[in-house]
Structure formats: structure tokens, C-alpha cells
Design goal:
heterodimer, A: 426 residues, alpha/beta, seven-stranded mixed sheet, five-stranded parallel sheet, 21% helix, globular, B: 126 residues, alpha+beta, CPE0013-like fold, 2 domains, five-stranded mixed sheet, three-stranded antiparallel sheet, 2 helices, 17% helix, 37% strand, elongated
Chain lengths: 426, 126
């Protein structure tokens, strides 16, 4: 058995930043475990630009963003084992992993950072009827084929889902000479960044068909066509609106699922909405000394926020190992109210040491303009409001919880996003 | 007197999620009026986007004898939007020998734009 102070599972952007932040704050004997051959995770296949605008104040591609952290990791004392698969973590932080050279490894950690990322939902997850021919891919696997392995998965493409990966792949397939017939979106709005809607679809005249879905896949050996239908307000296909579209390839970009099998295996409770662990402001899960960050915690739209979150977790590990933090008598729960799908972190669990405020992230359920983010304490008392000109489910909303409010005697704070009334603000 | 060519274009601003549909009116290719924007940044974006829309082009280039068959590349600066597809045809003909390192110039002055095509990652020799 090997001993390490900190074991980090996953060397994508979250794992890399957590390792660097932990080391910077004095953590020694850090081990980073990665199942792929390369460091950097999914960034390596995200060859498009648009990364780093928040964190580095410059526009980078995915591999360039990853490179900045990989270079620092190489110069650090962090130990790396790649092509290593973690199969189990026990509640007392014994990590079981395996790889070709070591065989089975048992690693005892004092602290753990979960940074496993997420995986894509598939056709099976959304139950589309029809045959099961070749030519059906998730958008992310198509991205890997095109950008890392040098294959074009098809020539006539339909994309289901207008999240960012779907939009990015529409442009990528188009640039590589494929014809992208349409991007279909079941909702009345795209969940992708507006920048991507304009620069990936409009620039190339690719139609975005809102409130449409695939209702049948045809083809024996290879996809030869799909039937698409308009959907009603309850997202059910409307009979009589079917259209047959000729294609040889379908890309599914229908959502991401945080990859938490290791977390649930060690008894960590997940948030039903985020699909990630419930965490406090240090990104610590319900298990003491076990932290989570990046897409395993909540699916982010910007990697910049992943880095920020991982740095919080990395620093928290240092504090934890030094035994620096004192828990509050009572946990302060942050509850989603009107038009709020979720809030991360879900709890404030520690007494303040050096903070003046805690940054919170939320995602709304529906787009809305001219709104207030209301922080509501026990007794339906609104204690603070922020104004936003626009909120959409595709872009995470950030705001602050001041220390003065955390100190108030309330067991919870509910956060609601309400249409701004014309009345004067109090 | 010759007739003026009057044109009206809609430009979706990408500055924030609001996505203002800014209307650009022009006479003989010169902007005569900008409307429906809600901030100065939007106005400036629409002006630039009307006069000379540009984009960074990220793609891949074939690699021989490399650990991977392709290397990711980008134009070091934005190039005119109208040149994206013809640049792709040009880039499709390039093949580089491994090793390739991040930042390496793959093609100088791509399509006469004055902008270099550079590698955005490192590919080791096989």
C-alpha cells in the first residue's frame, strides 16, 4: 500500500487546477490519477477557441488552455499516474486503482478530490425509436474522431440538441466538408452560448429548428434518414408535422451526466438536479476530507469556472490537512426558489476565517429578462436583491452571499429569480 | 444623379445572452444608421461585424509520423469571415512532420491574410 496526503481522481482541468492550488497552499505528497494517456481531459479535443476569456483574459483553444496547467504540473512535485483507472474508493479514503505496469494499486489518502468530469447522454437515454444502424454518435465522440483521430464520421449530418457541443460540432463538420442539414432543439430556445449560435450556425447558414425532435431513425446497416417532428408545449411530438430528412449521420448532443459512480460507491449523497455531490462552500462533500470540483460536481458552460472551483477545493484540502477550519453550529442550507434549478454550493458549513463573502453559482430553469435575484431568509424575509438584465439556462449565474448574511440566525436562505416589478426597490 | 444603394442588415450581438438584433442601415456600403442596440459595446460590435466580420479559424492539420494523425491549429489572429471555407481547402493540403510543438508556425501568411496558422498543441514523434 502507498500513502499520499492528497489523491486527485481525474487530470482534466479540474484535477490539474486542484493539484496546483493544493501544492501552492502547502500540501505535499499529491498523487494525480488519470485514466487516459494524456493530461488535460476533454480540453484536448476541444480545439475551438473561446476558452480562458474569464480566467486568463485572453482567448485560447482547449489544448492551449490545458497546456498552461500541464506545464505547471510538470514543474511541480505532483506525482502523476496516467492510464490508471480508479475502481473503488472506501469511506476511509482507501483508493483502489489499476494500470498495466503496477497491476492493482492500493493507495491510502488523507484527503481526496473527485474530479472525474462527466459523460454524454446517449440515444438510449432519450429513447428514440427506429432501427439501430451505424452512423449514430454522441457529439463528443464525433469530436474526438475528427479532432484527435483524424476521421470524419459522415457526410450528411443531423444534430439533435443545440447545447454548445452540438453547435461546435455543427461548425466543425461543416468546415471539414460535411453537409449539416439541421440542428434540432426540443426546447423553444437553444441551451448553447449565443456566441456559438451565431458563429457556428448563422455563419454557415445551418438551420436551427427549435421545438423539433427526431421521432424515428431509418436505415439498416447505416443511417439513411430520420423523421423529425415538431413538439407541443409538453415536448410531445405533434402528429402530422413529420418530415423525412435524408442523412447518413446523427450526432446526439442531449446533455451531460456527472460521472459519480465512485462518489456514490463511497456513500456520497448527490444533488438530484446537478447529478453531482452536495457540497459546502469549500466544495467538500458530506464525507469529511473528500472534495469535488469541475463537471463531476455540476456541468459548467465555461472551463474558467471549473478552474476557479478547483482552486477553491485545492486550497480547502490544505486547510483541512492543517485542521484549520471550524464547523458552524448549524449548517446554512441554500435552497432553490422560483425559477432556480440549482445552487452550488448547496450549504455553508464552516465558520468564516478570511472570507468577506461566498460566491454562489446558480442555473435558472427558464430564460427571463429584467429580473431580481432575491435572497430570502426564514420567515419569507428578502434580505438582499441583485438585478440582472437577462438570465438563461445556458449561462450560469454568479452572485455573492455576504458574510453578514451568513452570520444571521437563519437555517436556510432561499434564492429566487423573480421578474423585476416596476415598484421602487427597497 | 445615380441611384443610391440602400441596405438594411440585422446583426445579432454576441456580447451578452440578451442577443440584441441590431439593425444596420447603409447607403452605398457606408453605415448610415445603427439602431436597436442597448449598449455602446453592442453598437461597436455591430459596426465591426458589418464592415469587416472576422473569425479565428480553429481546425486540424495532417501529421506524418506523429503520435497522433492530426495536430490542432488556429489562425494566430482573426481572418475575414469570407475566407473561412477557402482557407479550409488550403489547409487540407498541408501535412507536417512530427514532432510539432505548441505555437509552431504551420503556414506563414495563410491565404495572403498576413496571419499565420499556428499549432495549438504538441504532437510527439511516433
Amino acid at each position: 500500500m502507498i500513502n499520499h496526503d492528497l489523491v486527485i481522481i481525474g487530470a482534466g482541468p479540474a484535477g490539474l487546477a486542484a493539484a496546483l492550488a493544493a501544492e501552492k497552499n502547502g500540501v505535499k505528497r499529491i498523487l494525480l490519477l488519470e485514466r487516459d494517456k494524456y493530461l488535460g481531459g476533454i480540453l484536448q479535443q476541444c480545439i475551438h477557441n473561446g476558452f480562458g476569456l474569464e480566467y486568463f483574459r485572453e482567448e485560447l483553444t482547449g489544448p492551449e488552455y490545458a497546456h498552461r496547467f500541464i506545464e505547471k504540473i510538470k514543474k511541480s512535485q505532483v506525482k502523476i499516474k496516467s492510464e490508471t483507472m480508479v475502481v473503488n474508493i472506501s469511506q476511509d479514503k482507501l483508493v483502489t486503482a489499476m494500470n498495466r505496469s503496477d497491476g492493482i494499486l492500493q493507495i491510502q489518502a488523507k484527503a481526496i478530490v473527485l474530479a472525474m468530469g462527466c459523460r454524454e447522454r446517449t440515444r438510449e437515454a432519450i429513447l428514440i425509436p427506429g432501427t439501430r444502424p451505424a452512423g449514430i454518435f454522441t457529439a463528443g465522440s464525433a469530436q474526438r474522431y475528427v479532432n484527435l483521430e483524424g476521421f470524419l464520421p459522415g457526410k450528411k449530418v443531423i444534430i439533435l440538441g443545440s447545447g454548445d457541443i452540438g453547435l461546435i460540432m455543427a461548425r466543425r463538420m461543416m468546415l471539414e466538408g460535411a453537409e449539416v442539414k439541421a440542428v434540432l432543439e426540443i426546447m423553444p430556445y437553444s441551451s448553447g452560448l449565443l456566441r456559438n449560435q451565431v458563429q457556428c450556425l448563422d455563419d454557415f447558414g445551418i438551420p436551427l429548428r427549435l421545438q423539433h425532435t427526431i421521432t424515428r431513425i431509418n436505415g439498416l446497416k447505416r443511417v439513411d434518414s430520420v423523421v423529425i417532428s415538431r413538439v407541443d408545449q409538453s415536448l410531445q411530438p405533434i402528429p402530422g408535422t413529420e418530415e423525412l430528412i435524408d442523412c447518413d449521420t446523427i450526432l446526439f448532443s442531449v446533455g451531460l451526466i456527472p460521472e459519480n459512480e465512485l462518489s456514490t460507491g463511497m456513500g456520497i449523497e448527490l444533488d438530484r438536479i446537478t447529478g453531482g455531490p452536495i457540497v459546502n462552500e469549500l466544495r467538500e462533500t458530506v464525507l469529511k476530507g473528500v472534495f469535488a470540483c469541475g463537471n463531476v460536481l455540476q456541468v459548467h458552460d465555461l472551463v474558467d469556472y471549473v478552474t476557479e472551483e478547483a482552486e477553491i477545493a485545492g486550497k480547502a484540502v490544505a486547510d483541512y490537512l492543517k485542521g484549520m477550519r471550524v464547523k458552524r453550529e448549524q449548517v446554512l442550507n441554500l435552497l432553490p426558489g422560483t425559477n432556480v434549478a440549482y445552487i452550488v454550493p448547496q450549504q455553508i458549513a464552516y465558520e468564516q476565517v478570511d472570507r468577506k463573502r461566498v460566491k454562489l453559482f446558480l442555473r435558472v430553469r427558464r430564460p427571463a429578462e429584467d429580473v431580481r435575484i432575491d435572497l430570502i431568509a426564514e420567515g419569507e424575509k428578502t434580505i438582499l436583491s441583485y438585478r440582472r438584465s437577462i438570465v438563461t439556462p445556458g449561462e450560469m449565474v454568479t452572485f455573492f452571499l455576504p458574510e453578514a448574511i451568513i452570520g444571521e440566525k437563519t437555517a436556510y436562505i432561499k434564492v429566487s429569480v423573480e421578474k423585476n416589478s416596476r415598484e421602487k426597490e427597497g | 444623379m445615380s441611384r443610391n444603394i440602400i441596405n438594411k442588415a440585422n446583426i445579432i450581438c454576441i456580447g451578452c445572452p440578451k442577443g440584441c438584433r441590431i439593425v444596420v442601415e447603409s447607403e452605398n456600403g457606408t453605415i448610415s444608421q445603427l439602431s436597436n442596440y442597448s449598449c455602446p459595446r453592442g453598437k461597436e460590435y455591430a459596426r465591426e461585424e458589418f464592415i469587416n466580420p472576422t473569425r479565428i479559424l480553429p481546425t486540424t492539420v495532417r501529421v506524418s509520423n506523429g503520435e497522433l494523425p492530426v495536430v490542432s491549429v488556429k489562425t494566430a489572429a482573426p481572418i475575414p469571415k469570407g475566407l473561412l471555407l477557402s482557407s479550409m481547402n488550403e489547409i487540407a493540403r498541408i501535412e507536417v512532420k512530427a514532432p510539432v510543438s505548441i505555437g509552431q508556425i504551420i503556414r506563414k501568411d495563410l491565404m495572403g491574410t498576413g496571419v499565420d496558422l499556428i499549432a495549438t498543441t504538441t504532437v510527439a514523434r511516433k
